Amino acid sequence: MAGRKSDFTLTKLDDLFTTQAQRDEEQLSKIRDIPLELIDDFPDHPFKVRDDEDMMQLVESVKERGVITPATVRQKEDGRYELVSGHRRKRACELAGFETLRSEIVDLNRDEATILMVESNFQRSEILPSEKAFAYKMRLEAMKRQAGRPSKENGVPVGHNSIVGKSREILASESQDSNTQIQRYVRLTNLVPELLEFVDEGRIKMRPAVELSYLDEDCQRDVVDEIDLNDATPSHDQTIRMRKLFNEGNLTTEAIHAVMSEEKPNQREKIVLRGDRVRQLIPKNIPVSQTEDFVCKALEHYNKFLRNRAERDSR
Fold this sequence. Notes:
The protein is an alpha/beta fold and 315 residues long. Among the domains are: 22-109, Conserved hypothetical protein from pyrococcus furiosus pfu- 392566-001, ParB domain (Alpha-Beta Complex), CATH 3.90.1530.30; 127-148 and 160-190; 191-260. Helices cover 56% and strands 7% of the residues. It is built from 15 helices and five strands. It has a five-stranded mixed sheet with strand order 1-5-3-4-2. A hairpin with a 5-residue loop joins strand 3 and strand 4 (81-85). Residues 32-122 form the ParB-like N-terminal domain. Belongs to the ParB family. One of its GO terms (molecular function) is DNA binding. This is ParB/RepB/Spo0J family partition protein.
């Protein structure tokens, strides 16, 4: 008994533990400056990267202090890198004239990367409905694929219907939107680009947009044409009726026109000005960029003249 060697030695036990300094050093070893030309954007990235005022401020910050928080990338099989989070930082580096992006390399599969990409971008202060719609859709699909894989315990995949419901419940518990609201956002991904842009602009609200998402592409484009013609978007009631007609197979171009031609509170009467006549009244020394301001000031002066004349006539 005394001569038996133990298989469990102190040396091997020590190998299981590392100091915080060692862990920090290991983490730093995964952070490096990667050439921008080797970094690809995340496929179908749903969040827009705009060259707006906020971007210009980020560019100045990057020029002064560099990239403080590293971007997150994963290495692809071809040796290139796929950007998981940090698309704005990457763009800022491009505009600043940098050739590399400080990045942390993580070992993630596509579904794990999708979930991380959505989570990191949801921290933005402003998110468009279209961005949230496609982000929710991508994350739900990734969660469903993960949940549907056979478990290590029994090798049996989970039923599809239970996956769909459970994924939305989990996502709702982690976000500010309810299960129902998440469903509505995902429905927006079925809209044609023009209608989706109206939603982003606030011209079409969520509930009417969801109803329109059940129409086919041809019917949706007919709705877009009617919006342009009437300079008004459909009400929730109108979209409900159009969806009902569509389900019955009766939503023709004429039917859409009839519904959309109804007078609505948000419909504005168009003011049509002949361009050639207006141009003749504007001095040639007024730049094109200042024509609107000139016309508005001219109208203000003319209205003032009419008021003064009315006051004189009433005396």
